[in-house]
Every structure is written in C-alpha cells, then in structure tokens.
Amino acid sequence: MTDVGNPPQYFWCVAHHRVETGKDRCPAKNLLGPYGTAAEAEQALQRVQERNEQWDEDDARWSGQQP
Fold it and tell me: For residue 7, what pLDDT is reported?
C-alpha cells in the first residue's frame, strides 16, 4: 500500500477488517478514520464501542434514568 498525505493517514475498513491507507483503500462508506497510526486504526471498533457506551450512559442521565 502506498501512503497518501503527509503524514500518512490510516483507516479501518469494516468490509475487510483491516487497516488501509493510500490510494488503494476502500470507498469511504466502508472506512473509519482517518487515524494517525496503524495501531490507532486497529483499535477503531473498540473506540466506537466505548464511545457508544458513554453516549448511552449520557443519554440515560439526561433523560433521568440514572442518578
């Protein structure tokens, strides 16, 4: 894969379950990112899950379902 950008950007492809970068990456509809490193891109789904859990907690607090 070739890197595009300076510094290069990394993406997590949800279709292929891999880190992608450069001109040969999948269409944007399949990508999470950009991330600054391949390691950050590899953790994309974990970060999505953590953020969703936090937002669910925030929503519950906002609606009065949690103290």
Answer: 84
| Kind and range of the H or E run holding 47 | helix 44-62
pTM above 0.85, yes or no: no
Burial class from Cβ neighbours inside 10 Å (0-12, 13-18, 19+) for residue 58 reads exposed
| DSSP H or E run through 34 | strand 31-35
From 48, 47, 55, 12, select the one nearest 30 (Cα to Cα).
12
Cα-flanking dihedrals φ and ψ of residue 62, to 5°? -60, -40
SS3 category, 12: strand
